[in-house]
């Protein structure tokens, strides 16, 4: 099993090598440039961009033609030597911050990132304060005084209840 | 006593949420402002269905009405199609060029569309969607008004009317070139 796998791998490498060698020198330059574009990088950039014709889908996840063309443009720009950040910036330049699925961690949208933690902090402080206050409150060890008239009334009504 | 001291907490928590919801439900999520307004229009160079080259560079000094459309865009693109041709006929001698860019389409269907409406202004396919993305196009139809200095000035999402075209073209034509 292992040997056959190794054989397949060796055959694949050989095939790739011969395909490489078979390419005419002129075509080799653009082909290798395109090959250098890592599909994972394309996917990473695409997954940060909002598919403009979808609801809550990234360009990476959408099967739409628009998303398909956008992935093509991402691939093309990466192949031309742009960094993933430059490609992202290109889409932001054309569509605005709206195109980013995660709002930028600066300016007004920084609030979106910070507010949950602020809320969590306020909540924790509030709980701490309240729990401390409750645990410090003195337990009424001695039952509150009942005035004699009330005591008499309770006794009377209890005895009423005992009657058949 | 305690209730009155914490009484402010409930409105303090609820009011911002209600305000956020009121804002959120009043705004149309499909209405996205274009960051391109006021900025130089992206250059493009396409070949029309008739085989002629059309580029923004070649239209320098003219007011350009750039319309993105598709034959599958029913009914919006069909609704506005007659207005596009009427606008072109009315304004072509006044320094305006109407350019149609067909996106995500099949050539045969696109040609049928153009023949159906008798479009006589330049129309070109954008097969890889590069021009559409460079104009931040979300869907079809979208129309961009480019002034004589080559800046994007107005954007219309959805079917264009004669009145909208006239109003915005007149405004751009009045500006000194």
Q: Could you explain the architecture of this structure?
A:
The complex is a heterodimer of chains A (164) and B (177). Chain A starts with a helix and ends with a helix. In chain A, helix 3 crosses helix 4 (65-79) and helix 3 (39-48) runs parallel beside helix 5 (84-95). Chain A is rod-shaped and about 95 Å long. Chain A contains 7 helices and no strands. Chain A is mainly α. Chain A has helices at 2-22, 25-35, 39-48, 65-79, 84-95, 110-136, 148-162. Chain A has 2 domains: 18-102, Helicase, Ruva Protein, domain 3 (Orthogonal Bundle); 104-135. Chain B starts with a helix and ends with a helix. Chain B is elongated. In chain B, helix 3 runs parallel beside helix 6. Chain B has a single domain, classed as Glutaredoxin (3-Layer(aba) Sandwich). The longest helix of chain B has 18 residues, at 9-26. Chain B has helices at residues 2-5, 9-26, 76-91, 107-117, 130-134, 162-174; strands spanning 45-47, 53-55, 63-69, 96-103, 123-126, 142-146, 152-157. In chain B, the strands form 2 sheets. A 5-stranded mixed β-sheet of chain B has the order 5-4-3-6-7. A two-stranded antiparallel sheet of chain B has the order 1-2. With 177 residues, chain B is of the alpha/beta class. Chain B has 6 helices and 7 strands. The A-B interface holds A 52-53, 65-66, 69-70, 72-73, 76, 91, 93-96, 98 and B 32-36, 104, 128-130, 132-136, 138-139.
Keywords:
heterodimer, A: 164 residues, mainly alpha, Helicase, Ruva Protein, domain 3, 2 domains, rod-shaped, B: 177 residues, alpha/beta, Glutaredoxin, 5-stranded mixed β-sheet, two-stranded antiparallel ribbon, 7 strands, 20% strand, elongated
**Mean pLDDT reading of chain B:** 92
Q: At CATH's second level, what is the architecture of the largest domain in chain A?
A: Orthogonal Bundle
% residues in beta strands of chain B: 15-25%
Q: Could you say which structural class the secondary elements and strand pairing of chain B correspond to? A: alpha/beta
The CATH H-level superfamily of the largest domain in chain A is: Cytochrome C biogenesis protein
The helix count of chain A comes to: 7
